[in-house]
Amino acid sequence: MAQDRRPVRVALVNDYEIVVQGLARMFEPFRDRVHLVELDSRMPVERSVDVLLYDTFAQDQADRAAIPDLLARGGAEKVVLYSWNTQDDLARTALERGASGYLSKGMSAADLVDALERVHAGERVVDRTATDDDDTGDWPGRDHGLSAREAEVLALITQGLRNDDIAARTYLSINSVKSYIRSAYRKIGVDRRPQAVLWGVRHGFEPDVARHPGPDADA
């Protein structure tokens, strides 16, 4: 007899509401398999969920992320990191620190749903599918032509990070960081860092503080 499997209850977490909302839209075709219970930006998960999906856009990566704190402060049974950075050491560190999964943003939405179901069933899942950084979700500045990585770097500039700090946070080389800065500045029409910070403040690049019930909060 087939096992009766209820949908996985998921919370989405990132400091930027636009990132969380973009991720939520990816799951809309899979409402029979994934219930989005809570969407959080800089707030602990309040409702009981099976999996907390932590999007690393402009966030600490696995080597710095407070994974035990994410588990301890909220109602999540398991934490899964969702990242562009697919290095072996990051995935290994995430699992060592208590994560139940480390998933690439290069995954299709269907594969992401499958991975969350496997995590909920008790597996530890790692996926390192290659990605060009711009295939999935949403981010601040997308409607101004910024790529996801350009937006991430600009978000960290807006937060006051220096180039070497940005390189450490994003796992990019310092030369890659400088390249993203040049291309981002060109697209937004600035040529100095203070101008970029002001532009970022005016266009949604400061972290949000919000907690919203997901569409399936009462399911």
From TrEMBL:
GO MF, one example: DNA binding
GO biological process: phosphorelay signal transduction system; regulation of DNA-templated transcription
Alphabetical list of Pfam families matching this protein: GerE (PF00196)
Keyword Acyltransferase annotated: no
4-aspartylphosphate carried by residues: 55
Domain HTH luxR-type: 139-204
Keywords: DNA-binding, Phosphoprotein
Signal peptide: none
Residue ranges occupied by any Response regulatory domain in the UniProt entry: 9-120
The protein, known as: Response regulator transcription factor
Source species of the chain: Phycicoccus avicenniae
